[in-house]
Amino acid sequence: MNGELIDIGANLAHQSFADDLDEVIRRAAAAGVTRQIVTGADLASSRAAAQIGAAHPAALWSTAGVHPHHAHALQAGWREELHALLGLPGVVAVGECGLDYFRDFSPRPAQRAAFAAQLEIAAAVAKPVFLHQREAHADFTAILAEHRPGLIGGVAHCFTGGAGELEAYLELGLSIGVTGWVCDERRGLALREAVPHIPPERLMIETDAPYLLPRDLRPPPKSRRNEPAFLPHIARTVAGIRGESPEALATTTTRNALRFFRLGS
Fold first, then answer.
1. Distance of CA 91 to CAs 25, 123, 212, Å?
2. Confidence class of residue 122 from pLDDT cuts 50, 70 and 90?
3. Which residues make Cβ contacts (< 8 Å) with residue 26, sequence separation at least 6?
4. Mapped to the 3 state alphabet, what secondary structure does the chain carry?
5. Residue from 84, 23, 61, 64 nearest 229 by CA
6. Per residue in 57-116, pLDDT tens?
7. Per the omega criterion (within 30 degrees of 0), is the bond before 210 cis?
8. What is the reported pLDDT for 92?
9. Can you tell me the distance from the alpha carbon of 66 to that of 46, in angstroms, rounded to the nearest whole number?
10. Are 94 and 132 in contact (CB under 8 A)?
């Protein structure tokens, strides 16, 4: 497809990319995915994501934060370290942060405390939040609503919900990140119904690589690993559902990502 794409969520610090990261970045660029936001999921991966971004300053930026799965492992001084990471020029958002009551890898009170703390940090450093929510909609929206006045923006990363969740997120002023979940004819029906109702100025796309390989990608990679080069497949699917051309969708989502993460032109 023609047109530049920006993958707003790629976990390039994941171990599965350790042996061929440069090739992954090259394949993405060859596919038109010329810029990416590398996701930080805890302090260690946030440091690694910042290092990856610094090594590719024209193409990669990163987030820094603590996923709810890791909230139980936070130790004294973590806020100060997160502040320091967010002071780096290539670190453009706080997160991945939020709540996950589906896995419950961390106690829910610890998740809520870590989420609220990161929203406070985001307000202090004036950077947007990269948000995760699974099976925790009520608590997630309540905490976010409390802190929303101090935030400059947020994106619902890997949105998989339906019309009700979409409406609530839009009322909170969130942008919406759509992944290859939309390509799954089994699990993605609610999302496919919601996608046409996302305002164009709020829509962004992402792979969440190496996770969420589009189910209908043909041929699938033997490794079953998702990677940013597959973002055009997601873009074409989203465009088709919305009744747009892939080129128009590329223009819109790229413009939105540039503005949201303040990447320049």
1. 18, 15, 24
2. very high
3. none
4. CCCCEEEEEECCCCHHHCCCHHHHHHHHHHCCEEEEEECCCCHHHHHHHHHHHHHCCCCEEEEECCCHHHHHHCCCCHHHHHHHHHCCCCEEEEEEEEEECCCCCCCHHHHHHHHHHHHHHHHHHCCCEEEEEECCHHHHHHHHHHHHHHCCCEEECCCCCCHHHHHHHHHCCCEEEECHHHHCCCCCHHHHHHHHHCCHHHEEECCCECCCCCCCCCCCCCCCCCCHHHHHHHHHHHHHHHCCCHHHHHHHHHHHHHHHHCCCC
5. 23
6. 999 999 999 999 999 999 999 999 999 999 999 999 999 999 999 999 999 999 999 999
7. yes
8. 98
9. 8
10. no
Domains of the chain, start order: 5-261 (3.20.20.140)
Q: How many CB atoms lie within 10 A of CB 194?
A: 23
The tokens describing 90, both together, are 């290539």
- Contact assessment for residue 25 and residue 56, using Cβ atoms and an 8 Å cutoff: yes
| Rounded distance between C-alpha atoms, residue 115 and residue 59, angstroms | 29
How many whole angstroms separate alpha carbon 49 and alpha carbon 234? 23
Which long-range contacts (C-beta less than 8 Å, at least 24 apart) are formed by 171-174? Answer: 172/141, 172/144, 172/145, 172/148, 173/148, 174/131, 174/202
Residue with tokens 């002071």: 87
Q: What single letter denotes the amino acid at residue 36?
A: Q
26: its two tokens: 């090259």
Distance between CA atoms of residues 28 and 45, nearest Å: 21
Contacts of 34 (CB under 8 A, 6+ apart): 4, 5, 6, 28, 59
Residues present in the chain in total: 265
